[in-house]
Amino acid sequence: MEDCFAEIHDLDTRSYDLGLEVLTGVVEDYPNPSDAWVKQWHDMCARYHLKPVEFGHWIDSKLYNEAGPWLSTKESYAQLVQDIKLGSRLGFTHGRTKHSTSC
């Protein structure tokens, strides 16, 4: 991930912080990254002048089985709360929630 941060920094954004959106897939040991990983995240954001703005996350209602049973409303809500708390811990000010759809 640091290589990506360095590439963005090379766009010459040193005079301002560039807004950043990431997806949950970049978070090591999602949904429970270590304190050391979170510190490294904040350190890299500061070093490369990147500002966490939007945390893209999913409510994966088909988490356990594509055909069902799907997550209940209560389970989906718990996943949403978990991701909002994690986004806040990483310094994000906005979230973009995506929800599984059935066909």
Brief summary:
It contains three helices and three strands; from the N terminus they run αβαβαβ. It is α/β, with parallel strands linked by helices.
Strand order, biggest sheet?
1-2-3
Mean pLDDT across all amino acids: 86
Task: List the total number of helices.
Answer: 3
CA radius of gyration is: 16 Å
Measured between the Cα atoms of the first and last residue, the distance is 35 Å
Report the portion of residues in β strands.
15-25%
Order of helices and strands: HEHEHE
Task: Write down the domain tally.
Answer: 1
Q: Which stretches are poorly predicted, pLDDT < 50 over at least 5 residues?
A: none
Proportion of helical residues: 25-40%
Number of strands: 3
Structural class: alpha/beta
Based on CA inertia axes, which overall geometry fits?
elongated
The biggest sheet amounts to: 3 strands, parallel
